[in-house]
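Subject: design request, 465 residues
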């Protein structure tokens, strides 16, 4: 018995020695196979009525939140391309906006009629109802426009990535829907349907994902980032155009920020300035994405939008063996700019686990000086990997040991996060594990704004020394 106690004590001490950084969660989740829900699942149900609109989703339609892009699909015939909408304050006379319709073919698949309609000149901080379809097949939804852009405007973002359409994906979406934190929009860090995991990139799985996610994204905007599962580049079946299903189905307001492509763009929302980058588009010197970001960062006015948030799919810092250092070239290219501009947080996906870093940078390194270890840097962002939505590829459980000094907390579980901006100086961040109660925070921290309140907000003792 004594020998057993000694062995256990040695193992505990050894684990403590191995952990150079923050904490690796000891939570033990059920070992289950992650699989896509069958096509006849109720979450994929087609709405009743002839040619009823389906896969309804919205996104901010301009730079400052006074426009909304409404998108939907009709499968049988083109039907009406109009959106009727009215504010909660004025229900007497609905306004009408006309959209455009696109279709596409992918291998042997032919899409339905995909509608996109931009509603403009909306009032800030107002509830709007909108209706798509006609007659008995018409469907009605609603959304809230954000408050007017300003430095002390509170706003709550949900954060998700790598969702897919498994039973775990459904749990993640349900958990987010029922969260008492009540996200008002979602920062989505890429990898939507995982249709490309099916034979010939079965685009029917784009349709099912659109119906599955409609219950949330028809009511609040999701700010889209493209991931590797949006590429759908498959020359072996004659598909040589990257991002074809995504670009036809999901429109973003990229032209409002002078971007030339829908894969990188920016928006302002309340007190946040959100910059979306593309891990799978060229970003080398003088490429369009490089040039856009070079010109975009100086436009950020922290007196107007104090919170500077960056979204990217492939993480720049990651202590999981899954996709380890895969985005190193992009980090080397852009990290100095993010530190110089005091970005508050970078959200990424790709790695199917959760991890939060301390504020660190590795911008001093060059090929001659050998300073290749990340160092604590209070001008640098916190890096959060949130690719734990629940997709069919399952959890990434193989973490590197010892845990690096820059890693504050990590866990291989499915979930979502909330970034709750209180004012220009403070934001409350929390990560919510699917297995917990809706109000439980499995990880959390207070963010101190890098521009207005740049105090040390490290969450591990070693990092704050």
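Subject: RE: design request

Done. Sequence follows.
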């Amino acid at each position: 018995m004594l020998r057993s106690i000694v062995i256990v004590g040695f193992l505990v001490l050894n684990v403590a020695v191995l952990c150079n950084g923050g904490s690796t969660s000891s939570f033990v989740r059920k070992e289950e196979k992650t699989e896509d829900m069958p096509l006849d699942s109720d979450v994929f149900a087609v709405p009743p009525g002839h040619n009823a609109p389906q896969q309804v989703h919205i996104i901010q339609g301009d730079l400052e939140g006074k426009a909304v892009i409404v998108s939907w699909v009709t499968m049988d015939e083109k039907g009406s391309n109009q959106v009727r909408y009215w504010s909660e304050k004025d229900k007497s006379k609905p306004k009408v906006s006309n959209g455009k319709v696109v279709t596409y073919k992918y291998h042997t698949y032919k899409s339905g009629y995909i509608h996109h309609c931009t509603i403009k000149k909306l009032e800030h901080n107002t509830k709007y109802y909108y209706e798509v379809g006609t007659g008995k097949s018409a469907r009605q939804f609603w959304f809230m426009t954000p408050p007017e852009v300003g430095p002390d405007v509170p706003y709550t973002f949900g954060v998700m990535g790598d969702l897919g359409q498994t039973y775990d994906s459904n749990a993640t979406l349900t958990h987010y829907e029922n969260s008492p934190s009540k996200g008002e929009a979602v920062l989505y860090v890429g990898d939507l349907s995982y249709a490309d995991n099916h034979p010939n990139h079965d685009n029917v799985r784009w349709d099912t994902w659109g119906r599955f996610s409609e219950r949330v994204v028809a009511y609040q905007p999701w700010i889209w980032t493209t991931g590797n599962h949006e590429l759908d580049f498959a020359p072996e079946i004659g598909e040589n155009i990257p991002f074809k299903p995504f670009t036809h189905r999901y429109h973003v307001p990229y032209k409002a920020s002078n971007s030339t492509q829908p894969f990188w763009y920016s928006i302002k929302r309340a007190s946040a300035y959100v910059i979306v980058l593309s891990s799978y588009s060229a970003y080398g010197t003088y490429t369009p994405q490089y040039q856009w970001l070079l010109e975009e960062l100086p436009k950020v006015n922290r007196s107007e939008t104090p919170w500077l948030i960056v979204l990217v799919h492939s993480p720049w810092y990651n202590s999981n063996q899954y996709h380890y250092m895969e985005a190193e070239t992009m980090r080397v290219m852009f990290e100095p700019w993010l530190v110089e501009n005091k970005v508050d947080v970078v959200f990424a996906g790709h790695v199917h686990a959760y991890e939060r870093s301390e504020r660190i940078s590795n911008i001093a390194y060059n090929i001659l000086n050998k300073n290749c270890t990340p160092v604590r840097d209070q001008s640098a962002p916190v890096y959060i990997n949130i690719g734990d939505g629940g997709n069919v590829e399952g959890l990434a459980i193989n973490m590197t040991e010892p845990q690096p000094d820059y890693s504050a907390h990590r866990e291989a579980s499915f979930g979502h996060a909330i970034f709750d901006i209180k004012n220009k100086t403070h934001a409350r961040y929390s990560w919510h594990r699917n297995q917990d109660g809706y109000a439980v925070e499995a990880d959390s921290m207070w963010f101190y704004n890098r521009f207005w309140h740049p105090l040390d907000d490290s969450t591990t003792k070693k990092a704050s020394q």
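Residues 1-20 have pLDDT under 50 and may be disordered.
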